[in-house]
Amino acid sequence: MVGDLERRILELRFLDGVEKVEHVPYQTGDQFWVRFNIPLDLKRLQEVVKSHGYSIVSFANIPSRLPRKLSELFWDGVSLVIAKNVSGWVKFKASLGFEPEGLAKVATDLHGPYQIFMATGEAGVQVLYEYLGVKYVPPSPPAPPKPAPPAKPITQTVAKPLPPPTAQPPTAPASAPRTVEGSYPSNQRHEAKPVHQQQPATPTKNEDPT
């Protein structure tokens, strides 16, 4: 990854020999491209690369020699790769078009005479700065993440107990309907009973009324 891209663009875009400075995003990481309008001094670049313990590997020698329309199908214009600890087998595969993992690479614009230095990591940016004679300043460290706010305790709403019911005075039991002597309750049917009257005794014939 390359840091401080905006600052690097401002530092290099107005140097002599620099045509354009670009930030190119890729899924594997951002790249820092510097397009030159003059040929690169490969001898000077080799000295800077060697001072950091790296080496320059020729890339895609065979595909680049094919006819232009055919070569564009197999070759993206990369001609040099700056890598570390490169073996002879890796150099051989690179000449066939198998790109080794590196910290920077140099490509030739297939649609113009310009060369492009493409830094794929911070070490490649440092090599580029030393080649251009510009003081290299490491990127500022990323700002520490802000601490998460303390979690608020979860408060549970407890239902308040209902107040005890108010004691009410006991109610007197309903009294039975009172009856008046000689009367009947209204809910009872009154039936008249026959009254037997005592008849006066009749004198017999043998008795003398006097």
Walk me through what this model shows.
- This protein has 210 residues and is of the alpha+beta class.
- The protein has a domain at 5-132.
- It is 21% helix and 16% strand.
- It contains five helices and six strands; from the N terminus they run H-E-E-H-E-H-E-H-E-E-H.
- It has a six-stranded antiparallel sheet with strand order 1-2-6-5-4-3, with helices on both faces.
- A hairpin with a 6-residue loop joins strand 5 (104-108) and strand 6 (115-119).
- Helix 2 crosses helix 5 (122-132).
- The mean pLDDT is 77.
Topology pattern, helix = H, strand = E: HEEHEHEHEEH
Q: Uncertain spans, ≥5 residues at pLDDT below 50?
A: none
Distance between the termini: 164 Å
Q: What is the average per-residue confidence, as pLDDT, rounded to a whole number? A: 77
Q: What is the oligomer described by this structure? A: single chain
Question: How many runs of DSSP E, i.e. beta strands?
Answer: 6
Principal-axis shape: elongated
In short:
By secondary structure, this protein is of the alpha+beta class.
Q: What brief labels describe this structure?
A:
single chain, 210 residues, alpha+beta, six-stranded antiparallel β-sheet, 5 helices, 6 strands, 21% helix, 16% strand, elongated
Topology of helices and strands:
Elements (H helix, E strand, L loop, with lengths): L4 H8 L5 E7 L6 E6 L5 H10 L3 E4 L9 H7 L3 E6 L4 H9 L7 E5 L6 E5 L2 H11 L78
Helix pairs in contact: 2-5
